[in-house]
Amino acid sequence: MRTRVINRTYWHIAEVPLVVNEWSPETALNPPDLSAMPIWIDLKGVPSMMFSHKALKCLSRAAGNFVKLHPNTEKCTHLDVARILVEVNMHKPLVEKISFLDKDGVNVMIDVSYPWLPPKCSVCSAWGHKGTSCT
């Protein structure tokens, strides 16, 4: 069980990512790489015809690499929001909108929001710590 927990690295507790690694003096001094991490995104305004695993996976690629659908999204219990776990490149700007042309050639805009993001330093602009603890 211990090996499984450490090998997975990223865990989600109450939908907030938790980074798990084996402790050593070196790892204590070197924070984990947060350049790419799994983040939940909420897509609002998804047309009903696009509310499928395949279509949501395709849409989510605009924000990052698809990991999985949230259970409520899989079960279609909340059709107003699609929640998707994607691995986001934290060095790139976060996607705020996804647009595409529907089958009639009409431009459709989908809002992207992030229910939780790691802290971002106001001093060095790195993710994972606040300015008060920047070294």
From TrEMBL:
Domain of life: Eukaryota
InterPro entries: At4g02000-like (IPR040256)
Protein name: DUF4283 domain-containing protein
Source species: Brassica carinata
